[in-house]
Write a structure and sequence with these properties.
globular, Hypothetical upf0131 protein ytfp, single chain, 5-stranded mixed sheet, alpha+beta, two-stranded antiparallel sheet, 39% strand, 127 residues
Length: 127
Amino acid sequence: MYHEKIFSYGTLQFENVQIANFGRKLDGCKDVLSKFELSTLEIKDPDVVATSGEKIHPIITYTGNPEHQIIGTVFEISFEELIQADSYEVSDYKRIKVQLDSGVFAWAYVNAEISTDKVQKTAVSLG
């Protein structure tokens, strides 16, 4: 039933956000995403702010520097839940496939301004 993996480093780790978006609490395991750097973003969508309870959300940008690491959680979700997660994230984010330090491939929401081609050539080996 749950065939998609999603890496969360922000509000999708909050139980209240999971319940609001998926109707259930997600179980996950800790993992690390290298070559990305964490910064913050002010969310202007009142529905997202109401759901998360936070006006400032984390956002990650690709740097290519292996010393930059993002600690987060990998969750297994259905394709339908992945689409629901897309609806929750504002347009400043885009979803890309990344390879985590554990070797697991997962979806992650990253800064929409980064070049996906650059990331896929250097941070992700899609096999």
